[in-house]
Design a protein that fits this description.
Largest sheet: none
Helix content: over 70%
Radius of gyration: 21 Å
Structural class: mainly alpha
Distance between the termini: 53 Å
Number of helices: 17
């Protein structure tokens, strides 16, 4: 046996990589005013740094899962981190905005496959009874990135220029690369081969398709407003650039609290928990429409939005896996990858709608349109609950006989 690496050390390596990847996903939210100034672009164009990245993950997660399915997991992690570092360096030294977007796409391809592969590695290195906890540990890297990585990257950008923010993320990616090289076992089992037909089977299942739409709309609704959070805080609420960094840290803490509680609440009955979470988010975005012009009330509402924003992630991921286990048991990995795509369809759709709303109606209207997206997800969640009930009734009747 060559497997001498402690599972805890492997999970640490994955968490470091997840921290780097989590930091780069939303870094441009904090850097948006600097990018607008540097490239002389509109707010809507700057929003492309979020939506294009999301599109890269959306396409990259299933595509890279198909292309890399039979590559050794250790080797694949090294390839992923090299691709990630390359993308961020291209962004850091971009002479034009279009090159910056190209760098974002390269990094996004790495992000999409990382989320799928790292979850599987985390589950493989521990005992079956500890799999959920292991995946949670790996995901703490993403949560910590929201709390510290994004505000830290924003502060570095404000002090030394936005290019240094991407160099900073590349450096963390390099640390992740070394950690993965040393601490990820070289003899991990390969998953069952993902196929293009598997994508069709997953998307051809009505319940899974509705669940993927719930993920896209329910998660994406926040991004209509969140993508433009820095301009919203500065222009509408009157906070200084320095204050925005502190607000982003507190916002990240609210995300971390919401994420943790959301995971616990969704364990037993994910759909019922998701319905409550989406309702809370819907109400918060409606309220933000009216408080966006008030410095302190607006700030309070933004922080409550942070609490609800990513709370739905564990429940959405758990529900899609549970559904795939019942409906398409041979395609659980692909269903998981497509759900990661759906999260990013939501980000791209939300940030894209936010850009159009900002251009046509103004920054203050973004929360209202976000609430509209979340309202659609509430309707679809109710549909999923209704679809699940007849099956339970039939089973109950069958047991009576």
């Amino acid at each position: 046996m060559t497997k001498k690496i402690s599972p805890a050390m492997t999970l640490l390596a994955l968490a470091i990589s997840a921290f780097a990847i989590g930091s780069t996903e939303f870094i441009s939210v904090g850097l948006m005013p600097l990018l607008i100034q540097s490239f002389h672009i509109s707010i809507a164009q700057a929003g492309l740094t979020v939506s294009v990245y999301a599109l890269g993950i959306m396409i990259g997660a299933p595509l890279m899962t198909l292309l890399t399915g039979q590559i050794n997991r250790h080797t694949l992690m090294i390839i992923i981190m090299l691709l990630f570092i390359l993308g961020n360096l291209v962004a850091a030294f971009a002479p034009a905005f279009i090159v910056l977007l190209a760098g974002r796409v390269i990094a996004a391809l790495a992000h999409g496959i990382f989320m799928t592969v790292a979850s599987v590695i985390a589950a493989d290195v521990v005992a079956p009874s500890k799999r959920a906890s292991a995946i949670a540990v790996m995901f703490t890297g993403l949560t910590v990135a929201t709390v510290t990585g994004v505000p830290l990257g924003t502060m570095i950008g404000q002090l030394g220029g936005w290019r240094w923010s991407f160099i900073f993320i590349s450096a963390i990616g390099l640390i992740g690369l070394v950690a993965d090289y040393v601490l990820v076992p070289r003899n991990l089992p390969l998953p069952s081969k993902a196929t293009a037909r598997g994508i069709l089977r997953v998307l051809g299942n009505p319940q899974i398709l509705v669940a993927l739409l719930v993920t896209a709309l329910g998660y994406g609704g926040t991004f209509v407003a969140y993508t433009y959070l820095s301009p919203l805080l500065e222009q509408k609420m009157g906070w200084s650039a320095g204050a925005v960094v502190i607000i982003l840290v507190v916002y990240g803490l609210m995300v971390a609290i919401g994420n943790t509680l959301g995971g616990r609440w969704a364990n037993a009955k994910p759909l019922a928990a998701l319905l409550k979470m989406f309702t809370g988010l819907f109400v918060t975005l409606l309220v933000l429409t009216f408080t966006a012009n008030n410095q302190w009330l607006g700030l309070l509402t933004v922080l409550v939005m942070g609490f609800f924003a990513f709370m739905n992630v564990p429940g959405l991921q758990l529900y899609i896996v549970q559904l795939a286990e019942k409906q398409t048991p041979n395609d659980i990995t692909m269903a998981s990858a497509l759900n990661i795509s759906a999260f990013n369809v939501g980000i791209a759709l939300g940030s894209g709608i936010g850009g159009q709303v900002t251009s046509q109606f103004g920054l203050g209207w973004t929360p209202l349109f976000g609430a509209g997206m979340v309202a659609l997800s509430i309707g679809l969640t109710l549909l999923l609950i209704r679809l699940a009930r007849p099956v339970k009734r039939l089973i109950h009747k069958f047991n009576e006989y």
